Amino acid sequence: MIIGIDVESGEKPFQELVQGVIDSSQSRKNIEFVIVGNSKNIKKSFPKLDSISSIGIVHADEIVYMDEKPVFAVNRKRNCTVNVGIKLLREGKIDAFFSPGNTGATVVSSVINLGLIETIKKPALATFFPRVKDGETLILDVGANPDANVENLWQNAIMGLSYYRLVCNKKEPTVGLLNMGGESEKGSILLKKAFVQLSKLNNFIGNVEGYNVFNGSVDVVVCNGFTGNAILKIAEATKRYFLEIIDELKEKKSSSFFRKLIFSHLEKVIFSNEKLIKKILPRFFGAAPILGIKGLVMVGHGACSKSDLINAIDFASFLFEKDYLNSIIDGIKKS
Amino acid sequence: MIIGIDVESGEKPFQELVQGVIDSSQSRKNIEFVIVGNSKNIKKSFPKLDSISSIGIVHADEIVYMDEKPVFAVNRKRNCTVNVGIKLLREGKIDAFFSPGNTGATVVSSVINLGLIETIKKPALATFFPRVKDGETLILDVGANPDANVENLWQNAIMGLSYYRLVCNKKEPTVGLLNMGGESEKGSILLKKAFVQLSKLNNFIGNVEGYNVFNGSVDVVVCNGFTGNAILKIAEATKRYFLEIIDELKEKKSSSFFRKLIFSHLEKVIFSNEKLIKKILPRFFGAAPILGIKGLVMVGHGACSKSDLINAIDFASFLFEKDYLNSIIDGIKKS
Question: Quick check: B245 and A132 CB within 8 A?
Answer without folding.
Answer: yes
